[in-house]
Hints:
Layout: E1 2-7, H1 15-26, E2 32-35, H2 49-62, E3 67-72, H3 76-82, E4 90-92, H4 96-106, E5 110-114, H5 123-135, H6 148-165, H7 169-175, H8 178-184, H9 188-197, H10 202-211
Parallel strand pairs: 1-2, 1-3, 3-5, 4-5
Helix pairs in contact: 1-5, 2-3, 4-5, 7-10
Amino acid sequence: xxxxxxxxxxxxxxxxxxxxxxxxxxxxxxxxxxxxxxxxxxxxxxxxxxxxxxxxxxxxxxxxxxxxxxxxxxxxxxxxxxxxxxxxxxxxxxxxxxxxxxxxxxxxxxxxxxxxxxxxxxxxxxxxxxxxxxxxxxxxxxxxxxxxxxxxxxxxxxxxxxxxxxxxxxxxxxxxxxxxxxxxxxxxxxxxxxxxxxxxxxxxxxxxxxxxxxx
Length: 215
């Protein structure tokens, strides 16, 4: 599985610690981590939580990654914005129990965490245990077991409804403010990794046009 870590402007100082704990847990499981957001490697790359949600949707809809770990100071904004896009199912995660239940019940493709609020002594341990609870467990099994079948039906119903009300991501990109899209794709990791990993679909085609300078 390809996992993106995306930190926004308020969380730059936390990026190295989050990346370290994420890789500690998922690399032994055979997953890859791509540090797509703000980092010490790319200090001039500056995105807000609003742009972070847009980037999350681009990466997931293009098939460049399979899962996104993100957040902001509270975790709320990043979660809210990410969920406004098609094919993004982001959970708000504060602790390992949240992580485990999100994987079992909702089985989404992104999590948003509060990297500012309540991130004090032991913050790195909470990160580690959250990542363990999510990535080291089987997903979509339901919890509690007595409601497992109902929860799977609810998840399918939700996905069907969202597909009815959400537009195609490729069209969203082409209708969005071009200055925002151009700023998002300037990240060093995005420039280096996106086209190598993205699938051939309308989302990737739209971004390719921006990267080539056609838009």
